[in-house]
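> forwarded from #structure-qc
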């Protein structure tokens, strides 16, 4: 089946004053995939995402999201995407249920809090405040808020940073479910094991440029074909396996 691009970025440049943070990058994200932007701190990943999310101005280049040109139709793009808020955006006196009602009102959609909380397994926390949630629950709630407007694409910037191994796996399942239900996911992460398990394709960004784009599998095969060989693992498990084994097993890789 031909891959249909849902995001097309061409020759994107972003300067902050004299500093050239994004240097002429071009890429496509296909409809229905989990697309990862990987690369060292300061590579330009967040800048690129925030420009596509219409939150930041570009210096030059063209961006088409779901058929709309960001220059002419930023409002239409905003309606079709889901973006995670910074923690400060969650009014401290409102509980999760009230926050969902608030955001539904802002988007002009009619979503019940329970329907959204159910998607991220947080119905038992409906009356809790955001600050009372664990790190993993906070991330799940934040992902629920990106889904309120039934977006075509959601953007997740380092969604599993700081989470324990199990909460991370739990989030991977959630992100895959979202992809499987038809929503395209664009994600950044510094965890390569996560990108390998989760992403259909990844782009490596460094110094404001895209170095290469491919599936994780192809990247690994290409490296192995050069004769690269990792130091042999001598044990059949690692400390993360011990962690999962000792602290709970409700997560299953699906
Ligand atoms: P990280 O992995 O650390 O999140 P990143 O790949 O997301 O990094 P960006 O946050 O996009 O990188 O930053 C790219 C470069 O642009 C960095 O050198 C950063 O210091 C610079 N930069 C980002 N925002 C601004 C700004 N508002 N003003 C000036 N420079 C900025």
């Amino acid at each position: 089946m031909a891959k249909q691009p849902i995001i097309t970025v061409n020759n994107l440049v972003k300067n902050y004053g004299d500093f050239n943070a994004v240097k002429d990058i071009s890429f496509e994200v296909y409809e229905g995939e989990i697309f990862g932007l990987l690369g060292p701190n300061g590579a330009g990943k967040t800048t690129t995402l925030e420009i596509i999310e219409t939150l930041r101005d570009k210096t030059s280049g063209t961006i088409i999201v779901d058929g709309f040109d960001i220059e002419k139709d930023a409002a239409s793009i905003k309606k079709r995407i889901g973006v995670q808020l910074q923690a400060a955006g969650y009014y401290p006196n409102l509980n999760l249920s009230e926050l969902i009602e608030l955001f539904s009102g802002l988007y002009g959609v009619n979503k019940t809090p329970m329907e959204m909380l159910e998607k991220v397994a947080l119905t038992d926390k409906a009356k809790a405040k955001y600050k009372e949630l664990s790190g993993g629950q906070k991330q799940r709630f934040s992902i629920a808020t990106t889904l309120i407007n039934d977006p075509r694409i959601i953007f997740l910037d380092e969604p599993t940073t700081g989470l324990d191994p199990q909460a991370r796996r739990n989030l991977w399942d959630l992100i895959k479910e979202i992809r499987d239900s038809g929503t395209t996911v664009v994600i950044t992460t510094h965890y390569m094991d996560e990108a390998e398990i989760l992403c259909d394709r990844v782009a490596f960004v460094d110094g404001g440029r895209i170095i290469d784009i491919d599936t994780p599998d192809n990247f690994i095969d290409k490296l192995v074909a050069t004769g690269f060989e990792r130091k042999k693992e001598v044990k059949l498990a690692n400390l993360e396996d011990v962690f999962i084994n000792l602290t709970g097993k409700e997560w299953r890789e699906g």
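QC bot note: The chain has a mean pLDDT of 92. The pocket of adenosine-5'-triphosphate is lined by residues 16, 19, 21, 39, 41-47 (CB under 6 Å).
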